[in-house]
Amino acid sequence: MKLNVGVLFGGNSVEHEVSIISASQAMAAFDSERYHVVPLYLSKDNQLYSGSQLLDVKQFKDLDAIKKKVPQVTLYKEKQNIFVQSVKAFPWQKAQRIDVVVPVVHGTHCEDGSVQGYLETMGIPYAGSDVIGAALGQDKIFMKMAFAYHDLPMVPWLYFDVKAYADDKTKQLKKIAELGYPVVVKPARLGSSVGISFVNAEDEIEDAITTALQYDMRVIIEKAVQNLREVNCSVLGDELDAKASVLEEVMKYDAILSYKDKYQGSNKSKGMASTSRICPADLDKDTTKKIQDLALESFKVLACAGVVRIDFMMDAKTNAIYINEVNTIPGSLAFYLWEKSGLRFSDLMDALVDQAINRTRRKAKMIFSFETNLLEGYGSKGSKGVKR
Length: 388
Hints:
Layout: E1 3-10, H1 16-29, E2 35-42, E3 48-49, H2 63-69, E4 73-78, E5 81-86, E6 96-98, E7 100-103, H3 114-122, H4 131-138, H5 140-149, E8 157-161, H6 162-167, H7 169-179, E9 183-187, E10 197-199, H8 205-213, E11 218-223, E12 228-237, E13 242-250, H9 259-263, E14 277-278, H10 285-301, E15 306-315, E16 321-327, H11 335-340, H12 345-364
Parallel strand pairs: 1-2, 1-7
Antiparallel strand pairs: 2-3, 4-5, 5-6, 8-11, 9-10, 9-11, 12-13, 12-15, 13-14, 15-16
């Protein structure tokens, strides 16, 4: 019997379209002999839709039109089973059972633990990092704090929020000057290079901060790496077992790889898989091993699961290595790194489904509640039960 796999994508995020590209690749990669794929498209206004038309990425050229072609649906649980049902279904219409969900969402309100929290609450088996891992991976400030606690290598950095900047702009600008130009300015909780600016001098910094604050209430300022090489590594697994992929070196033509470079090039329908890269990266064995070990450590520190991509920065002259960030649901699910590592895209999807099911089985053996009822006999003296 085939497993019914819901692929959840879209969402209220500036990376909405990126998610559609990644999900279309993932859905096409599933082995049709083993799985029945159920698209679960979350629109920008947070309405859920499902239908076979959503398997075709070309249908998304008009995001308003697609919502008229497929039914709006809801998820509900009956006993231990999860179902997808049209909100306008007649009583005799059969609902679609879902065995497991693979989230392929990117950015805030989606990848940041929001979707994972919903799936946890519903008791739906799902692939990838859980609420904590997803939230830490999305929030670059907390991610860096966790890395700092474990003495993992990062460039010098600082952060502030919109209130601190408004209350004392001069103070924040002075701190940036002390960090030293050039710097990179980032929103705290976005990916795909959205809202990022490379700032060479003080006269450019305020515009960059204004841009970043359009996307988040908090901003990160990082010391720019001179002679930059960008190297990425994917990790697949969970807290019990994980492995690192081969490395890639991303080729760029500007100071930072932009959203346009990643997704609006000549092969934009291929997402991150179309980015210019050298894979495997041209690095010696010792450097490769060091980066792979750091990737595995980063994965462990953030309590990640599923498939992630860890981005590194290298100084080409000193060979210093810095962790840049962790993508808990990477663009294109980083399948291109695993194909170069000898793992087919279909096998990657098998691994994600297995990870989701195995985690659910382990959780089923854990204690989350007690077989007691504090409200039994609750009456006029019920205040005695109030926790103090």
